Automatic annotation (TrEMBL):
<dbReference type="InterPro" id="IPR037523">
    <property type="entry name" value="VOC_core"/>
</dbReference>
<dbReference type="GO" id="GO:0046872">
    <property type="term" value="F:metal ion binding"/>
</dbReference>
<protein>
    <submittedName>
        <fullName>Methylmalonyl-CoA/ethylmalonyl-CoA epimerase</fullName>
    </submittedName>
</protein>
<feature type="domain" description="VOC">
    <location>
        <begin position="11"/>
        <end position="139"/>
    </location>
</feature>
<dbReference type="InterPro" id="IPR051785">
    <property type="entry name" value="MMCE/EMCE_epimerase"/>
</dbReference>
<keyword id="KW-0479">Metal-binding</keyword>
<dbReference type="GO" id="GO:0004493">
    <property type="term" value="F:methylmalonyl-CoA epimerase activity"/>
</dbReference>
<dbReference type="GO" id="GO:0046491">
    <property type="term" value="P:L-methylmalonyl-CoA metabolic process"/>
</dbReference>
<dbReference type="InterPro" id="IPR029068">
    <property type="entry name" value="Glyas_Bleomycin-R_OHBP_Dase"/>
</dbReference>
<dbReference type="Pfam" id="PF13669">
    <property type="entry name" value="Glyoxalase_4"/>
</dbReference>
Length: 142
């Protein structure tokens, strides 16, 4: 068993879920959970060719609904196949160091993503976590 652990300096930021339509997904989410502490915002992320909806609660749980903006979006095929859990996003102060430290296969070099943050997607090689795609997001202050 691999004993390598994610250092404490990485904080789970959100869970990314691919959907066919972010507006429909949000309505369904709000209908089911009826929480009053939810905030949400929509954003188009050009580097990923996706429309997203970030949903946050006061307890700092965040879910990202992701809708492909066209057939050239990296998540188009996944959406067409029904979508679902896509990635876990961890926040870090130094994305370049994190990529080296985690020793995971980088899918793409860092680009500007949600909230104008520097992001990168890496692939967790073992598949033991049930989700292999990890998004790294640099903290807003860096």
């Amino acid at each position: 068993m691999n004993k390598k652990r994610l250092p404490e300096k990485y904080r789970l930021h959100h869970i990314g879920i691919v959907v066919k339509d972010v507006h429909t997904a949000l309505r369904t989410y709000l209908d089911h959970f009826e929480r009053t502490d939810i905030t949400y915002k929509f954003e188009f992320v050009p580097s990923q060719k996706v429309e997203i909806c970030m949903i946050s609660t006061l307890d700092q749980t965040t879910v990202e609904f992701i809708e492909p903006a066209g057939e050239d979006s990296p998540v188009f095929e996944f959406s067409r196949d029904g979508g679902g859990l896509h990635h876990l996003c961890y926040e870090t102060e130094d994305i370049e160091s994190a990529i080296k430290e985690l020793d995971m296969k980088i899918i793409e070099k860092p680009v500007i993503g949600f909230e104008s943050r520097k992001i990168a997607f890496v692939f967790e090689k073992t598949g033991d976590m049930g989700v292999s795609l990890i998004e790294l997001a640099q903290t807003k202050n860096n």
